Amino acid sequence: MDVKQKVKLVIERLKNLYPDAKIALKFENPLQLLISTILSAQCTDERVNEVTAKLFQKYRTAEDFAKASLEELAEDIKSTGFYQQKAKYIKEACQILVEKYNGEVPKTMEALLELPGVARKTANIVLANAYGIVEGIPVDTHVRRLSQRIGLVKANQPEKIEKELMEIVPKEEWFIFPYLLQAHGRKVCLARKPKCEECVIKDLCDAYTSKN
DNA sequence: CTCCCGATAT
DNA sequence: ATATCAGGAG
């Protein structure tokens, strides 16, 4: 089957299965989304939401984070893992926001990529969910795993995977696509033990059809 | 490529 | 015990 046709069927079936698929991180403004997304590296969204519920009470503006004690900030985000790195990223990124962007989160890919701790995946998420600007497809661990298992892409590096996906996923689906794969990745197409028998797209999946 | 790194599932 | 969780920097 043509890979573009396959993508359309995958999207159609997953939309039907997960009609409410959307970002799982809780945020009230672009700054909160930026911080949450940085924290979400190698950590479940659920835990990030637990941490940010308290964090965003304590730190309300980019200035608050920029002025924060590194040790204290690290302690505040400890349970998300990689806490020393993430604390530095957040503090330094917010210092840049204060100095260059009047304390606001910039709206361009170029400006976002200059922030420490922010690469394409994080930038794509912030642009799309805070500003409605869809320039690409954020490739996280779920998007990568499912895209490879199903056989939508051949590449291994996130940036190459994103490029391949942008060529086969219709642009109007770029926004919803990663959330559909994330929902399916968390409920059915698990990393360690995928529940292939209850999967609604197993007939389209290379990993499944090659084993059965 | 390695390092950062706590919490949970298996 | 080990793999994995909305990654990114050096």
UniProtKB/TrEMBL annotation:
One of its GO terms (biological process) is base-excision repair, AP site formation. This is Endonuclease III. Keywords: 4Fe-4S, DNA damage, DNA repair, DNA-binding, Endonuclease, Glycosidase, Hydrolase, Iron, Iron-sulfur, Lyase, Metal-binding, Nuclease. Residues 39-187 form the HhH-GPD domain. DNA repair enzyme that has both DNA N-glycosylase activity and AP-lyase activity. The DNA N-glycosylase activity releases various damaged pyrimidines from DNA by cleaving the N-glycosidic bond, leaving an AP (apurinic/apyrimidinic) site. The AP-lyase activity cleaves the phosphodiester bond 3' to the AP site by a beta-elimination, leaving a 3'-terminal unsaturated sugar and a product with a terminal 5'-phosphate. The keyword DNA damage applies. The keyword Cell wall biogenesis/degradation does not apply. SUPFAM superfamilies: DNA-glycosylase. Pfam families: EndIII_4Fe-2S (PF10576), HhH-GPD (PF00730). The lineage of its organism: Bacteria, Pseudomonadati, Thermodesulfobacteriota, Thermodesulfobacteria, Thermodesulfobacteriales. [4Fe-4S] cluster binds at C189, C196, C199, C205. It is an enzyme of class 4 (lyase). It comes from Thermodesulfobacterium commune. InterPro entries: DNA_glycosylase, Endonuclease-III-like_CS2, Endonuclease3_FeS-loop_motif, Endouclease-III_FeS-bd_BS, HhH-GPD_domain, HhH_base_excis_C, Nth.
